[in-house]
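SAMPLE LOG
Freezer: B-3
Tube label: C17
Construct: single chain, 142 aa
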Amino acid sequence: SARVSSGPWLSLTSVSTTVKEAMKDALTRILTPKRNIDIVREVMAAKEQKRPYTIVFVGVNGVGKSTNLAKVCYWLGQNGFKVMIAACDTFRSGAVEQLEVHSKCLNVPLFARGYGKDAATIAAEAIQKGKSEAETAKAHRG
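STRUCTURE (predicted):
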């Protein structure tokens, strides 16, 4: 962890370096999982409890949320799970269409309500649909 040296004259470079190091340390601490995650085991546990397993992809524009969502959907399908994608980004132009392409390529249903809607409401409705129709990340193994 970087420290600011004591003294009346600090350079902008040392302050900038200190801030960058502090941010790096904080983000590493926040983003490092506290436990191992076994998605297959967790999805199976959700199935036993008769509830859908949900995964939320968040991040700033351009970091690959939709691409990684498609990869995870593909992996879940390869592991025998049924998946539904919920299009909750109702602000960014083309967001719903991007997920439509992924859902068609993966043969996965898409839950979408269009643009300008409340994202949390769409997510809640998608989870409810998953509960009622058994479409959300539930195992279809024997």
